[in-house]
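Backbone-to-sequence.
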């Protein structure tokens, strides 16, 4: 696990422009939130609440930005945008990762404008101010300037952590300290898949016309999974249910799931892989859930038969039939680590009613497209599932914008949605208070 030293960017500019009365109104909405029910409409539609979210959640907590597979070589970079923030995530020449605010120190122009690429020095396209990989200003030619101190105008940094090949960033002056505790818990689950020895097979970027919280709520339950026919071939539709809540028509599926769970536990114990569910979604600052769970059919991957989608095992794994290692991290990410590939998901807020969902498929770095895997088959299930989820989120956003909307109760199987909202409300009340 690596980190960089932060020189914090200015905070408080978003809510700082609001009146005390308006901030009190927003805090009152949080205080009156009804447990077990969805949020009031303004949480999904109001621009001031969105601004507060960007400060209190995305400006203070650890956010998943990408993986080492997306920046495999020195000079490789991705840019990550959410709310008012734009970041450069750069693989430096020393093998580490630098995370820099993508804001030129001259007039504030974007320094790098592509979503990914390779660079040596970074040159702002406006007036050619030039920065090295550490963000230091190395060139700023201007006629007549003699007392200009370039050392005072480096790009601002953000905190970063790399855990099991996943890159996390934080804009906070002092990020939540319990992230390191959580990282020690989930790293043994993910480590055997060795992201550092994978490559990007495909990346999908979807703009969903919905608030970021609706995107996360939708992801945190399977009550709607009847709407995912491709996913239902391999993901047990009883996910999130208990023996008491399984409907009659899924009784056979429930029994098949129990048998698959028993088989998976045996395999995990044989290979020394952790598999127990660890769930602290709203009981700590860095909310999370991780487990290793069986898949239906052949139990290997997200295919119609559950059969592997790539012939290459990841890392030092010795068996394809390992189900999925599934992880949820507050506030913006979820992951599936399988024996043959990895899928990372990240939600980046764009506006009160828009969210970018970025999905990245990773395969072994020596896997050859067309030989070891078929790209269409590899991506089919989750491409379709993401499009279906996009439709569901947009239905909810339109509903939240209606005068007829009022919060409705979460079902028992939606307890993780309730946990996500509890986490969100706790964090925002702390921030606004």
């Amino acid at each position: 696990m690596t980190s960089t030293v932060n020189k914090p960017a200015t905070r408080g500019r978003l809510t700082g422009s609001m009146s005390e009365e308006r901030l009190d109104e927003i805090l009152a909405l949080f205080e009156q939130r009804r447990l077990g029910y969805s949020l009031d409409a303004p949480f999904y539609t109001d621009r001031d609440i969105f601004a507060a979210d960007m400060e209190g959640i995305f400006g203070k907590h650890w956010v998943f930005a990408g993986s080492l597979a997306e920046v495999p070589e020195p000079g490789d970079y991705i840019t990550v945008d959410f709310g008012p923030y734009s970041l450069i995530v750069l693989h430096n020449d020393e093998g580490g990762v630098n995370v820099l605010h993508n804001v030129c120190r001259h007039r504030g122009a974007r320094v790098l404008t592509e979503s990914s690429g390779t660079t040596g020095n970074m040159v702002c396209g406006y007036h050619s101010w030039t920065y090295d990989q550490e963000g230091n200003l190395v060139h700023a030619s201007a006629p007549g300037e003699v007392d200009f101190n370039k050392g005072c105008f480096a790009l601002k940094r953000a905190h970063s952590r790399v855990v099991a090949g996943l890159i996390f960033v934080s804009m906070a002056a002092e990020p939540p300290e319990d992230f390191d505790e959580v990282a020690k818990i989930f790293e043994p689950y993910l480590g055997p898949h060795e992201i550092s020895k994978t490559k990007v097979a495909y990346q999908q970027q979807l703009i969903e016309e919905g608030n970021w919280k609706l995107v996360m709520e939708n992801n945190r339950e399977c009550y709607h999974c009847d709407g995912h026919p491709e996913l239902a071939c391999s993901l047990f539709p009883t996910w999130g249910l208990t023996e008491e809540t399984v409907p009659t028509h899924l009784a056979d599926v429930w029994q098949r799931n129990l048998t698959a769970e028993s088989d998976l536990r045996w395999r995990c114990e044989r290979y020394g892989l952790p598999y127990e569910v660890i769930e602290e979604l709203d009981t700590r600052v860095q909310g999370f859930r991780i487990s290793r769970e069986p898949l239906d059919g052949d139990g290997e991957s997200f295919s119609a038969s559950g059969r592997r989608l790539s012939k290459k095992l990841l890392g030092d794994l010795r068996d394809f039939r390992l189900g999925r290692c599934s992880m949820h991290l507050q506030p913006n990410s979820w992951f599936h680590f399988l024996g043959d590939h990895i899928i990372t998901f990240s939600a980046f807020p764009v506006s009160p009613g828009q969210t970018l969902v970025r999905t990245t498929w990773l395969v072994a770095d020596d896997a050859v497209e067309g030989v070891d895997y078929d790209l269409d088959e590899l991506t089919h299930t989750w491409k379709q599932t993401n499009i279906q989820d996009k439709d569901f989120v947009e239905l909810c956003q339109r509903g939240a914008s209606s005068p007829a909307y009022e919060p409705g109760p979460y079902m028992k199987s939606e307890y993780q949605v309730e946990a996500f909202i509890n986490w969100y409300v706790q964090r925002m009340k702390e921030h606004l208070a």
